[in-house]
Amino acid sequence: MSEHASRPDSADYREIFLNDLPLIDTRAPVEFLKGSFPSAVNLPLMTDSERQKVGTCYKQQGQQAAIALGHQLVGGKVKETRVAAWAEFARTHPSGYLFCFRGGLRSQISQQWLRDAGIPYPRITGGYKAMRQFLLEEIESAARDCRFTLVGGMTGTGKTEVLAQLHNAIDLEGHANHRGSSFGKKASPQPPQIGFENTLAIDLLKQRHRGNHRLVLEDESRLIGRCSVPVSLYRAMQTSPLVWLEDSRESRVTRILKDYVIDLCADFENTFGREIGRQKFAEALRSNLANITRRLGGERYRQLDAVMHAALSRQLHDGSVDRHREWIATLLHDYYDPMYDYQLEKKDRRILFRGNQQEVVAFLRERCRI
Questions:
Q1: Are 154 and 340 within 8 A, CB to CB?
Q2: Stretch 29-43: mean pLDDT
């Protein structure tokens, strides 16, 4: 590990995030679960219970007593196991760093124990708190300095498909792991709000580093599932110009069938196994419909639920999905399209261009060169 000896501790957060450098997060699991960074793995110095005991001791008896208790709790075989995990990571990722909350005692102890094991490994000064602040400032800066164009359109027109064809797009739904609609949940959970903001900020940082200051976003609500678009970015979006993506209702039904039925069922099967996955998929689909009962009205909800139930029964019996088209088409006609028509009246003055997917992509590519 001689390459580590010449590597100093770092506060170059920009370099760390631009290069996705591997990170050891030595904070407790409860801290990690609230949000960390995409390239970080949680190899904690202390478990949640150990951290709680040390924290209580610190409040009651002071720092020295807390440090002594920490060494008592994390000693012997426990210490050996944790150092071994850090050492394995360091050998596998020689360009990485370790960090704790403020770049203080926990990361210093972890670093010293690694050094005692013959493995010098640098830490991030300022720790998680400083890196998090750096990313929050990146969002504020991008919201202020970048020029955004939004892609709008009725449900099922393929707005995400447009973003995927552009080198200067920011996929908010991708970062939120949610499709953004009432039926947008996926088999895997959404990230915590902090994690959503961190990955978004890193995406913005990389885009600007590549010289892209004209960015394309989907026209989103403030909430994407349970993830909230940062206030400064959302405000910038509300005054940004739009392009409006158009497609036939038949094509939209087919696209929704693929995204929200075929692909989503496969996602659940891959995550939970075939039988349990299918069951969870069916439960999720009916639950999503139930969540908009008040907007649909009780009678319309019961009718759609019956159609959906019959379609799911057929799908789970023989794999046929065509019966889903009925409830999808009805939901578009009775629920989504009227809602979009209402919203469109307020946004009409901001629309620069209307067209199909190919035309919209061509327009946006040309616009980013201006």
A1: yes
A2: 97
Domain count, the chain: 2
Range with lowest mean pLDDT among 37-51, 58-72, 122-136, 276-290: 58-72
- Domain boundary residue among 102, 131, 160? 131
Pairing label, strands 227-228, 223-224: antiparallel
User: 271 and 303 in one domain?
Assistant: yes
> Do 76 and 213 have their domain in common?
no
Q: Same domain, yes or no, for 172 and 101?
A: no
Q: Are residues 107 and 155 in the same domain?
A: no
Contact status, residue 98 vs residue 86, Cβ threshold 8 Å: yes
Closest CA to 316 of 272, 283, 278: 278
The one catalytic residue in 57, 100, 146, 368 is 100
Task: Verify that 264 and 197 share a domain, yes or no.
Answer: yes
Per-residue CA distances from 228 to 36, 220, 225 (Å): 17, 10, 8
CA-based diameter of the chain, in Å?
A: 72
* Cβ pair 10, 122 in contact under 8 A: yes
| pLDDT value, residue 339 | 85
Number of helices (H), then strands (E), belonging to the chain: the values are 20, 10
Name the residue with tokens 């327009």.
363
Let me know if 100 is a catalytic residue. Answer: yes
Domain of 281 in residue numbering reads as 146-370
Mean pLDDT in residue range 292-303: 93
Please tell me whether residues 283 and 328 are part of one structural domain. Answer: yes
| pLDDT score for 6 | 62
Which amino acid type is present at position 245?
L
pTM: 0.93
Question: How far, in Å, CA of 307 to CA of 324, rounded?
Answer: 8
Identify the burial level of 2 via C-beta atoms within 10 angstroms of its C-beta, where 0-12 means exposed, 13-18 middle and 19 or more buried.
Answer: exposed
pLDDT at residue number 69: 83
Q: Does residue 339 share a domain with residue 241?
A: yes
